[in-house]
Design a protein that fits this description.
By secondary structure, the protein is mostly helical. It is built from 2 helices and no strands. The longest helix has 26 residues. The chain starts with a helix and ends with a helix.
Length: 63
């Protein structure tokens, strides 16, 4: 059953990374409105994306 979960993580982690990227693109602040909440939400999504990217990389290179 271990190989099933490994395969599942190898599929779901890149999908979640893409979903986080699409969310970041949808809420990215434009020049009209640029408040502290825009910066905080964008920074938190980027931080989450970095974590998921590192997790994805570690899953893909593990044996």
């Amino acid at each position: 059953m271990g190989s099933f979960y490994s395969w599942l993580f190898r599929v779901l982690l890149p999908l979640s990374l893409g979903l986080l990227g699409a969310t970041l693109g949808a809420i990215w602040p434009d020049s009209r409105h640029f408040g502290w909440m825009d910066v905080a939400s964008s920074a938190s999504l980027v931080l989450a994306m970095v974590g998921v990217a590192l997790w994805t990389f570690s899953v893909w290179i593990s044996d």
